[in-house]
């Protein structure tokens, strides 16, 4: 785990910021703390960093040797190949370079992919057999056979022989063969070849290649040169190899600003924000002036930690140094304030920056929405000169999270009309809005656009599609998405199981549960809620008991209140009210209002007035002013013929102005969702609806 690689503990933040001696206030100028703290804590920061240094490598030399030996098996059987083509052309004490290299090219080019892959042993094995059969000195072909700076050009080969990328002329290329083949063969480079290896780092996207170059620098003793170490450090950080990067950094006797900035960036992006802040502190102790690059990633580290106090300290350092923030610093500073809950500070920083900053405004919009200030977020969104995908995504996601699902879909359509391509977060939020509204047509439209655009369906997006189809009444479409998913997680299984349970298809739910177990996916609490719900809807009492016990004894899951509620519902629907009441009495925790409400509903259905009254008495203790609970009790009394008592309850609800949930229906017509609520007379087409309804009743 990335966090396990981080070396410092949370208290290091406190120590590091004691050293900074400065904070910034949103309502007052920067205030200063005594500089004497800097002197008293100098050794602390150094000692903490030394612990990290010592834990990376026992010695640089052994690391280099180990890196050189770290290889995987070669997929080509070079021991069984015919080397005559080389040995016949390269004879005698004077090797004719042109003929020899042509022969080498003819032999090696069919295996260009394997030889260029520095994670295997292919090049080393090939050269070993060439040397054995031809008695050639090691490194002959690797050092001599080269055609230019781009490497050894190979003729175009059929796809079955090579899959290397082709250049414009159709030739296969081995990039830097003399250097790469020597690296893969395990040769130690001479000092004259080290600059070429360093230059290769800027083109390299393979961590194993970087480690081989690292090994060469260690073995050759050239790692101590700052330019070499700096390039290697940057490569490791780019590839998120944080431990290796820190081994380079900790070996520098006097790291410069570039090295500090690179390492701070790596620690911040590598999920070690505590370490990033501590390293920033050491930068100050070493007398290096931080710049905009430094502050960008230090503020990001504070954002990861939601460390408002520490962020203000760093802000104060920037003010004291007189550094004018660029767009990147401005954005990361505002983001730090918004994620830390200080929207007022973020607004003030934004007001002080004259340039239009879309990224910064996106952060503030997200901050507004996270605190429920939807109108403020929309106002800023509408005044933005330029909106990117993050701007639209923030609004769509914010509307959905605040329960404004219709607004979320309207904004999503505006986004599509503006020809801004949505990201996964936007799509998931839009599908969630469709699911809550029952907007099947709009959900299908989103799905169709995904297929049309060739959008890769991830686990998260696929799960959102399944959930949308299930809640919109089209479980088979959701199941088709489920079947086409290359990978599923436990949430995906939970959604499809709940979908079939909700749609009254318990057998399919049980079959999928067995499939999930067969796939070695360990069920969680949500999975068993879905399975128990399926048993409840189908009336499978004994099977429900089986799954409940299996959950406890086979999978070690402690039942939650939701599981107990499912069992009470299962027994109540089956009319086994006495068992349901006994089951409630045996619960290890106190039943909540949901449990008693479920029993009360079952008593109303089966006309058990005595047991229903007991459940109601428990309910009014837990929720004394719940209008829905009184309403349910009144319906039970009315069904049992106790009309006077039912009337008293209705009068009590009215006199105490208790709120009750009104029945709501959602109907989608031509992609527009219409909501109808009991007692609502405000719909624009109410007269037409009543006319059609009367026609249906009369006929």
From TrEMBL:
GO MF term list: mRNA binding
Signal peptide (residue range): 1-23
One family name in Pfam for this protein: PPR
PPR repeat segments: 256-290, 291-325, 357-387, 388-422, 489-523
Domain named GPI-anchored protein LLG1-like: residues: 76-152
NCBIfam families hit by this protein: PPR
Recorded family membership: Belongs to the PPR family. PCMP-H subfamily.
Name of protein: GPI-anchored protein LLG1-like domain-containing protein
Source organism per UniProt: Morella rubra
């Amino acid at each position: 785990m990335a966090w396990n690689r981080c070396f410092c503990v949370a208290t290091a933040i406190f120590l590091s910021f004691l050293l900074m001696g400065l904070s910034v206030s949103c309502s007052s100028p920067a205030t200063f703390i005594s500089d004497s703290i800097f002197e008293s804590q100098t050794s602390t920061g150094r000692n903490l960093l030394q612990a990290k240094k010592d834990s990376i490598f026992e010695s640089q030399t052994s690391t280099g040797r180990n890196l050189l030996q770290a290889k995987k098996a070669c997929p080509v059987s070079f021991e069984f190949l015919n080397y005559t083509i080389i040995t016949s052309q390269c004879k005698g004490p004077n090797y004719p370079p042109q003929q020899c290299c042509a022969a080498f090219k003819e032999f090696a080019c069919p295996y260009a992919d394997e030889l260029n892959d520095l994670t295997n042993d292919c090049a080393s094995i090939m050269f070993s057999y060439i040397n054995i059969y031809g008695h050639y000195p090691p490194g002959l072909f690797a050092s001599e056979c080269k055609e230019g700076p781009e490497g050894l050009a190979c003729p175009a080969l059929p796809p079955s022989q090579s899959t290397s990328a082709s250049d414009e002329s159709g030739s296969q290329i081995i990039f830097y063969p003399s250097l790469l083949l020597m690296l893969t063969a395990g040769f130690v480079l001479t000092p004259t070849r080290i600059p070429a290896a360093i230059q290769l780092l800027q083109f390299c996207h393979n961590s194993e290649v970087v480690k081989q170059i690292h090994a060469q620098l260690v073995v050759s003793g050239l790692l101590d040169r700052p330019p070499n170490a700096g390039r290697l450090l940057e490569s490791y950080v780019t590839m998120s190899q944080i431990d290796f990067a820190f081994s380079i950094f900790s070996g520098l006797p006097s790291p410069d600003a570039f090295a500090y900035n690179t390492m701070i960036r790596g620690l911040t992006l590598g999920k070690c924000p505590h370490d990033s802040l501590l390293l920033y502190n050491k930068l100050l102790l070493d007398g290096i002036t931080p710049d905009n690059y430094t502050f960008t990633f230090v503020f990001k580290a504070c954002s990861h930690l939601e460390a408002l106090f520490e962020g203000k300290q760093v802000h104060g350092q920037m003010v004291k140094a007189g550094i004018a923030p660029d767009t990147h610093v401005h954005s990361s500073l505002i983001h730090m304030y918004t994620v830390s809950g200080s929207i007022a500070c973020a607004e003030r920083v934004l007001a002080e920056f004259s340039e239009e900053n879309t990224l910064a405004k996106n952060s503030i919009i997200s901050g507004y929405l996270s605190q429920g200030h939807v109108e403020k977020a929309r106002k800023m969104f509408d005044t933005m000169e330029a909106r990117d995908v993050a701007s639209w995504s923030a609004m769509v996601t914010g509307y959905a999270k605040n329960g404004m699902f219709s607004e979320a879909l309207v904004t999503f359509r505006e986004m599509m009309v503006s020809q801004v391509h949505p990201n996964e977060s936007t799509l998931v939020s839009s599908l969630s809005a469709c699911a809550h509204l029952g907007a099947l047509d709009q959900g299908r439209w989103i799905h169709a656009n995904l297929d049309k655009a060739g959008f890769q369906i991830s686990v998260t997006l696929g799960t959102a599609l399944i959930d949308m189809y299930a809640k919109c009444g089209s479980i088979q479409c959701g199941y088709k998405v489920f079947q086409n998913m290359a990978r599923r997680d436990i949430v995906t299984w939970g959604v499809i199981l709940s979908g079939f349970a909700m749609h009254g298809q318990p057998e399919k739910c049980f079959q999928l549960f067995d499939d999930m177990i067969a796939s070695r996916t360990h069920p969680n609490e949500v999975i068993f809620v879905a399975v128990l719900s399926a048993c409840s809807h189908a009336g499978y009492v004994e099977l429900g008991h089986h799954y409940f016990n299996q959950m406890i004894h086979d999978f070690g899951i402690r039942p939650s209140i939701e599981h107990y509620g499912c069992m009470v519902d299962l027994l109540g629907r089956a009319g086994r009210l006495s068992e349901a009441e006994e089951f409630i009495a045996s619960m290890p925790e106190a039943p909540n209002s949901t449990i008693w409400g479920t029993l009360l509903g079952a008593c109303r259905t089966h006309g058990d007035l005595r047991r229903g009254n007991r459940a109601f008495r428990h309910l009014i203790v837990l929720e004394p002013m719940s209008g829905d609970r009184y309403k349910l009790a009144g319906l039970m009394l009315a069904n049992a013929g106790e009309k006077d008592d039912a009337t008293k309850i209705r009068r009590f609800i009215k006199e105490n102005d208790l709120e009750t949930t009104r029945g709501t229906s959602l109907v989608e017509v031509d992609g527009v969702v219409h909501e109808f609520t009991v007692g609502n007379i405000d719909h624009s087409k109410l007269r037409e609806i009543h006319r059609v309804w009367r026609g249906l009743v009369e006929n």
